[in-house]
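Training component of the fellowship. As part of building independent skills, the fellow (R.M.) carried out the full modelling exercise for a liganded target. The chosen ligand was GN1. The inputs are recorded below so that the supervisory panel can assess the work.
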Amino acid sequence: MQHEELLPIIANFAIKGNVTEIKPLGNGLINDTLLVKTDGPDNYVLQRINNAIFKDVELLQHNIDCATAHIRRKGAMTLTFIPCKATGKTYWTDGEKYWRVSVFIKDAFTYETVNPEYSYYAGKAFGEFEAMLADIPDKLGETIPDFHNMELRARQLREAVEADAVGRMAEPEVKAILADLLPYEEEMCKAERLYREGKLPKRICHCDTKVNNMMFDAKGNILCVIDLDTLMPSFVFSDFGDFLRTAANAVAEDDPAIDKVDFKMDIFEAFAKGYIESAKVFLTPIEKENLPYAACLFPYMQAVRFFADYINGDTYYKIKYPEHNLVRTRNQVALFHSALSKVPQMKAYIESL
Ligand code: GN1
Ligand code: MG
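Fellow's submitted model of the complex:
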C-alpha cells in the first residue's frame, strides 16, 4: 500500500506528531508490518493483522492488552499499543481489514542468530516472561485454537495428504518426507497425552519465541519480548522449543544447505541454563525433564506445518519462491533429526543443573 493510503488508517489512532515516512519493517510470515516515522517524540509500528489467521481480533487484542498491562504493573518493559480515537480499543477496522499501532522501541536491536551469551539472556527473559504472567488475573483465550497441539498438526498433515489439492503428492521427495516424519508422530504427541492425564499444566506462554522476537539494547541486555499475537495458554515446551528451533539451528530455517543444519548444543545449554534459572519458580519436574523433548518437538511440528502448507499449495505462510515451503520443510526435518540425536546429551546437561 502507498503512503497516502496508509495515512487515513494511521489517523484513527491517537498518535503524537505528524507522519514523515512509512517503510516496511521486519520479516514476519503472517502480518504486514510497517515503521511509521513522525516529527513527534515517538515513531510507531503499524501492523495489518492477518485476520484470516487470527480470526478473533477482539480476543487477540484482549490477550495482548491484559498481558502488557500486567507486565507493566510489575515494572518491566513491554509493548505499548495506541488506542483507536473512536473506540478506545487497541485496533481499528474498516469492517474488512484490521490494523493496530504500537510505539516503536528506540535503540533496540533484534537478531536472526545469537551467541551463547545472548542465548543465556534470552532463556532468562523467556522464563521471566512466563513467570510474570503466571499470576495474571484475567482470563486469556487461545488466539489460534490448539495452535501448538501436535495431534492437530499431525491431523492437518494427513488431511493435506488426502486432499492433495495441487497434486504435489506425486513428487517422490514429498512421499519420502512423509515416510520420514510419520514414524515419530506418536512420540511427538506426548504433551497432549500428559495433558489429558492431568500431568502437564497449561500456562500463559508466548508461543512464538523465535530468536528475532526479542529486543536487545546495545549492550546485549534484553529490553523486552515482542510479537505477542500468539500469547495464550499452552505448554512451556512452546517457548523453550521454538526459541531453540530458530536459535540453535546453525543456519536459518529456510536455508537450502541442509548439510549445514545442526542443533547447536552450546546454544541449547546456555538457553536451558537461563530459562531454568528464572522458570524454576513454577516449573514442575515433568516440565523440566521434558525440555529435551520440547527441543525435538518444535522442529518436528514446524516441519509438519511447512510440509502441510506445501502440500496444500502454500495457503498459510508467505513464500518468496514456489519451493520455499519445501525448502523450509527439508531444513526443519534435518534439524529435528539433529536434535533427536542429541537428546541424551541434553538430558545429561539438564540433570546437571
Ligand atoms: C509464523 O509470522 P511469524 O514469523 O512471527 C508462525 C509461527 C512459526 C513461524 C515460522 C501465527 O511466525 O508459528 O513458527 O512463522 N506464526 C503463526 O517461521 O502461525
Ligand atoms: Mg513473529
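The panel noted the following from the submitted structure. The two ends are 51 Å apart (CA to CA). Residues 28-30, 53, 208, 227, 230, 253, 302 surround GN1 (ligand 1) (CB under 6 Å).
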